[in-house]
Every structure is written in C-alpha cells, then in structure tokens.
Amino acid sequence: MYNALIKGFSGENPIKGFEFYVRMLRANIVPDNLSFPFLVRACAQLEGIDMGIQAHGQIVKHGFENDVYVQNSLVYMYSTCGDIKAANEVFSRMLSPNVVSWTSIIAGFNKIGDVEMARELFDKMPERNLVTWSTMINGYAKNNCFEKAVELFQVLKDKGIKANETVMVSVISSYAHLGAIELGEKAHDYVVKNNLSLNVILGTALVDMYARCGSIEKAIKVFDQMPERDVLSWTALIAGLAMHGYAEKAIWFFSKMVNSGLKPRDITFTYLLSACSHGGLVEKGLELFESMKRDYGIEPRLEHYGCVADLLGRAGKLAEAEKFVLEMPVKPNAPIWGALLGACRIHRNAEIAERVGNILIPLLPEHSGYYVLLSNIYARTNRWENVETMRQMMKEKGVKKPPGYSLIEVDGKVHNFKMGDKSHPEIEMIERKWDEILWKIRLAGYTGNTSDALFDIDEEEKENALHRHSEKLAIAYGIMRTEAPAPIRIVKNLRVCEDCHTATKLISKVFGRELIVRDRNRFHHFREGSCSCMDYW
C-alpha cells in the first residue's frame, strides 16, 4: 500500500512521495526493491541531488544496491540531476545492465552535451529499443548536431525500424534548423504514410519546420489540419509569421487564439512584439506591450523590453528608444543594448552608437558582433581611427568574428558554404558561375557596397571579400543546380550584409528567380528585384 502511494505521488507531487516513505519507516514497515525506484524517481522529478544521495544511502542500508531495477533508477536519477560521474559509477558496477540501463546513461551523457560518449555507448549496446534510438537522435538534436540526428534517423529506417512520434519530432526539428524543406516534406510524408498521430507536439514541430524552411503557407496549412492545438502551437505559427515579416497576420492569429479561450504566454508576446518591430508597427507594438500586464497578468521580462527598444529603434525613434532603455524598471542586459546599437546602424547614428558601445562592450567583451556593428557605423562615417581602435580591442582581447556559413538543400542533400572554403567538389564551377552572375547584375546597376567592410582596406580588396560571401556561393550553386520556378532557399548563421542584400535583389530580377534567405534575424523573400523586408532589417 505504501509503495502504491509513493509511486502515485512520485510523478506529480514528489515531496508527498517522500512523506509516505518516512511514514512507512515510522510504521516499522521495511521497504522492498519496489519502494526505491519510485522514491528515486521522486528525486529525479525534483532534480534534487542531495535528496537523491540520501535515497541512495537508504538503498545501500537496506541491501538493494545490486538490484537491477533499483540501479536503473539510480542511473536515471543521477543522469537527470546532471551528475554523470555518479551515474556512470553506478552503471559501471552493474553486472547485467539492460536496455533501460544503457538508455539512461546515454541520456545522461546527452544532457551534459557529451554526444560523442553517448554515441560510443549507443554503438556498444548489445540490443536497442525504440526509446534508445529516440534518446540518441533527440540528444543530437538538443545539442545542435542536426546533421548527425538525421543521419541516425536514416540508419534507423535502413534497419526497418518504424519511428514513433517522439523520434519524428526530433528529426523534423533538425530539418527545421538545417532549412532542409525537401527532407522535411519527406519526413511529413513518413508521418502520414505510417499513420502516426498528428498530436500537439508533432503538429507544432511541423508548423515550426515549414515556417523555418521558408514555406509559411504550408505551416498555416498544417496548423489548420491539427485536430488539437495548444498555446505553443499558436505561438509557433505567430513566431513563423514574425520571422517572415507578416506582422498583421501574426496579430490576426493572436486575436483568434485569444478569442478561442487560450491565454497567451510570455513567449507569445516576445514573437508578437518582434513581428511589430520588423513590420514597423510602432503604435500596435506599444499597445500590445501595455496589454501584457493589464489584460493578461504577464509581467514583462527583459526580452519584452528588448523588443520594445528594437521596435522604437528600427522605426528611427532612437532618442526615444535610448530613453526607454535608460528608464526601464529592470537593468538592461547586453541584447537590449545590442538591439539599440543595431538600430543605430540602420539609421547611421554614430553619436548614440558610441554611447551605447561604451556601455555594451564592457558588458560582453567577448561578443564579436558588437565590435563589428560599431566598427561598421564608424566606417560609414569614415572614422577610421575609431575603426582601428575597435580592431585593436578585438585583437588584445582575443575576440574573433565567427565564420559565416550558408546552407542550401539540393536534391535532398544539404550543402554548406563558407567564405574562402574551397572544399566543395564543384567549387571551381561555382566560382565561375558567380563571376557570370556578377557580370550580369553589374549590367543591371550593381556596384558593390563596401560600407560594411570592417577595416579601412583597399576598395578592390573589400570587393573581392564581399564577392566571396558564403550566401553568394550558395546562390550560385542554387542557380546551377535548380530550375525555375522552384525557389532557391538559403539558411545563413549571420545577419545578411547590405551588399549581399542588394546583390540578391538584383539576382531575383535579372534571373527571374525567387530567393528565400533565412538569416540570424528573419526571413527575406526576394522577388522581381525587391525584398519582403522592404530594406528594413
């Protein structure tokens, strides 16, 4: 009876489970091997390592330290609490670890980010079940090893194992991050053909995948087909619309969600305010910000204040944005100051940028992006002494700009391009293709915008660097290997620079191609010489 009560409370009310264990001891009832897995599970639920150690002591005291079910619970508990060393010690002492034991220790290594050790153990397993496969694939996805996640999914399929909804969520999320819509569509087909349930989590993952891969229409279609939606499903769609710059649509879906009886969460407002910022809807954004606490009882967090600062700054209200940040009831963090600095770049305000930079760089001295932003602002006003100061500061502090890369999916394979990287097997053809593209867009008026060059180098050198930016190589490959009317889809890890933005607009006009570029901030849909962001990013 006590075991049943400990088990019942171990999930939803673990403290109560502990209370019943203590009452059992006080009643002079000796615990058995079924008492401890539930007790240890309660510790895992609380992620309370100290309580877990006490439970482990009780296990040793009562002589169950060699029971496989008790050992499994200990491995799971220590893994969940992040003490992989203790988990591994218990696992290493097990005489006959079963599938549950292996899966728990793999999950533990995944949790601390050691996917190499997790995979080593996975490969050593004498037998695996679907939970093990799901744990390893999810581990890769959670640790940003998206290509490895999809590779392992392919191995699972090759072995004739049918994936479940949990596996497909990890796989579809990986395709979303890679921007691989062809592979994402195949995963969607897999879900349909294998009669997997389009539950809330899987449906939300598909909505997010299509939105991140540049097809907001398909995201809306999947959303409409979902038999059940929760607030996170609505938020995923609103986030997708925000990324694509459809501010009015995002607000419309928000109103529809509220009218359906669902209460928005704080993250919903983060995406809503972001949509207003990218859409230039200042008054509506401020109205939504005010409604958070007034209408929904949600206390604005730092990210919401950051969105408002970005909203005002992008609209050119830089003095108002600076005043808003300085008068915030909470101390502004680096991303908030960074949003204001980004607005200074858009509107070429070196005066406010300098004040912001003096606050921002000491806050995050290792963040290269802020040095680059401030340097670019100085470069535009030909303040090369200040640019040199930035360069020296970066050099002294060992700060390096992360390398830019661009991904493009062609025929179900994702190709990765980096500036200066010549490892692609078709790089010579790609570079010749880019030279051809460059010649044609120059005839259409392209001159090359070198204002984003970081340092005062020779103009010809700047142009050579700009013409080998990773997205330009990816676009050249896309034009080589795809045919109209199929859009060319690019995923980029950094913000699109002004020169690449200008060049891509002209490419869309000269070559009659639609290009969809996802950068660090948002989506850009290039059609017939214009961009969906209206040059406002």
From TrEMBL:
InterPro entries: DYW_dom, E_motif, PPR_At4g14850-like_plant, PPR_rpt, TPR-like_helical_dom_sf. Pfam families: DYW_deaminase (PF14432), E_motif (PF20431), PPR (PF01535), PPR_1 (PF12854), PPR_2 (PF13041). PROSITE patterns: PPR. GO terms for biological process: RNA modification. GO terms for molecular function: mRNA binding; zinc ion binding. It comes from the Eukaryota. This is DYW domain-containing protein. It comes from Gossypium gossypioides.
